[in-house]
Amino acid sequence: MVSEILKKAAELKSKLVDFAHSAQFNKEFKKAIKKKFGDPAVFEAEEEFVDFVDWFMLEKRFKDGETVLEKFIKTDTNLTEKEKEILLGWKKTKSLLFTVQKKLRDGFILVDVIEGKEYLVKPTAKKPRLKVRKGDYLFSRIVPLEDYYTFSGVSRVISKKDFERANLTAKNLAFSKTLKEEKGKRKEE
């Protein structure tokens, strides 16, 4: 069951998306898309566009130093104090690579693979589309909500097996590069 606060967060996110797609941001939006995806913009998957919109709303700073999120909070005079508090928390967005430590009835315990910090993360959807197992890796953007976090944008799941395979490939490539460099140095001597 999705809590009232998660429902409110989903509602606010929908309003923020509409605001980000308003005419006042059209020029900056197109400019940012062109810079990231080329002209014409080419998206390999719909998820890329969804993630881009999420970044544009939460992290892209304009010339005045503000984000779409901050402009939304200033502009929407109908927001309650609680809604403003929720939205202001989203300024602390985190885009990280996590490992799934534990699946819960209503969310997940994720661990940041770089710093080892644990995060309790709950989806806003009634039936999350995220199919993960303990030990899988997850690249995701999360935003704070009360004493836990919720997902924002698209989460990419990498199975533990695929991650280990990619990690091994990266190590092999780095080792091969080192060998080539060593051979090059020996030839020069």
Keywords summarizing the entry:
189 residues, alpha+beta, OB fold (Dihydrolipoamide Acetyltransferase, E2P), 3 domains, five-stranded mixed beta barrel, 6 helices, 5 strands, 22% strand, globular
Describe what you observe in this structure.
This protein has three domains: 4-91, no CATH class; 92-159, OB fold (Dihydrolipoamide Acetyltransferase, E2P), CATH 2.40.50; 160-189. A hairpin with a 2-residue loop joins strand 1 and strand 2 (107-112). By secondary structure, the protein is α+β, with helices and mostly antiparallel strands. The longest helix has 29 residues, at 160-188. The termini are far apart. It has a five-stranded mixed β-barrel with strand order 1-2-3-5-4. It has six helices and five strands, in the order H-H-H-H-H-E-E-E-E-E-H.
Cross-sheet strand order for the largest sheet: 1-2-3-5-4
Beta content comes to 15-25%
What number of domains? Answer: 3
Structural class, judged by helices and strands? alpha+beta
The radius of gyration computed from the alpha-carbon positions, rounded to a whole number of angstroms, is 20 Å
Shape: globular
Write the topology of this structure.
Blueprint: H1 4-20, H2 26-37, H3 46-58, H4 68-75, H5 81-89, E1 94-104, E2 107-112, E3 118-122, E4 137-145, E5 148-158, H6 160-188
Parallel strand pairs: 3-5
Antiparallel strand pairs: 1-2, 1-4, 2-3, 4-5
